[in-house]
Amino acid sequence: MEPIITSLLDTDLYKLTMMQAVLHRYPQAHVRYEFRCRSAHKLGALAERVEAQVGMLRGVALTKDEAEYLRSLRFMKDDFVDFLSLFRFNPDYVQVSRDGDELRIAIEGPWLHTILFEVPLLAIVAELEFETHPDQARLLAKGRERLEEKLALLRSADVVPAFAEFGTRRRAARRWQTEVVNRLLEAKGFSGTSNVDLARRFGLLPIGTMAHEWLQAHQALGARLVDSQKAALEAWVQEYRGDLGIALTDVIGMDAFTRDFDLYFAKLFDGLRHDSGDPVVWAETMIAHYRALRIDPRSKQLVFSDGLDVEQMIALEKAFGQQAKIAFGVGTNLTHDLGIEPPSVVIKMTECQGQPVAKLSDSAGKTMCRDASYLNYLCSVFGKEAA
Fold first, then answer.
1. Domain 136-335 has CATH 3.20.140.10
2. CA distances (Å), origin 141, targets 137, 216, 302
C-alpha cells in the first residue's frame, strides 16, 4: 500500500493558521476529536486500511522548500515554521476501529500535536472509499465531463463570482484534486485553493482563516461560556493583528454570533464566512447587521462555503454582489462530483481540557456533541435550540 498523504502541506490553510495560534497561546491544551459519516455510506470495512495509512503519516515531514514557502507568507511566523520543521505525526494519538458497518475514529492528545490529523484523515477515508468502486476510470471521465460543464457555465455567466477550491477533505483522490485545480486555472473568477501544497505548486493564493474548532475550544479555555466566542475572536485578532480577518459565524448559531460580533469586532475583521443555514437569510442578516452598526457592507467580505455548486454561486453573486464583497469556497462539488454520492465525512472537536465542547449548527444534522447535558446547557446559555 502506497501512502496517500506525502506532504505536510497537503492540508487546508486554516489548520496551519490555527496551529500557529495554538503554539503561541495554548501549547498545553488537551483535546479530543471524533469522526462521523453523515451520509449512508458504510465505511467499517475501511478500518484496517485507514489504520495503515495513519501509521504511514509518521514519515511525513516538512521539506526545506516547503518551509521556505511558508516563510514567504506574511502571516506565518518564523518560530512556527521552525516548530513545524520538527513536527511529526504521532499515530498513537489516533484510534481507528470498526463497529459493524461503521468506521470509528477518535483523536486525543495535545491540541498542538493533534490539530493536523483532521484533513489528512478525512482525505484518506474519502480516497479509500473511492478505491472501492470497480470502475474508477469511468467515474473520473464523468468527473471531467461535469467539470467542463462547470467551466462552460462560468464562461457564459453574466457575472463573475470570485471562488476558491476547498475540496481537500472529501476529494475522490489526490490526483483528481490536482487535475481539478489545474483545469480551474483558466476559469473565470478562480482565486486560489485552501490546499497549501497545491497553492505552492501552482503559484496560487492559499486561502483560509479559522475553523469551528477554534471557537469551540474557547468554550473550555477559561472565559465564561457566554463570552467564549468573544474570547476566541479576541485571541485571533491579537495573534494576527489584521491578517486573516474572516470570522466564522455558525459555531453557536447566527443570532448568538451577531450579538457577540459588535462594532469592535465588525471593524477589526474584514468579513464573515457562511457554513450552515440558508445562505440568503444569512447574507441578508449580516448585511443588515453591518448597516445597523453604521458600517458600509460594501467594505466587507461575505464568504459562502456550504455545499455550493456553480449555479448557487452565480445566483448569490447576482443577489448580493452589489451589497458586499462576495466570495465562495467550493469543495465536494469540485473534487468529488463523479456521478456517485460522495461520503459526507467530518471530524469535529468534542472535548477540550477534559470538558465537552460543541458546535450548534444552523443546519439540521450538523450539530455535534457527545454530551447531551452540556449541549442543553450551551443552548440555554445562548438561547438557541439544537439543530
1. yes
2. 6, 40, 34
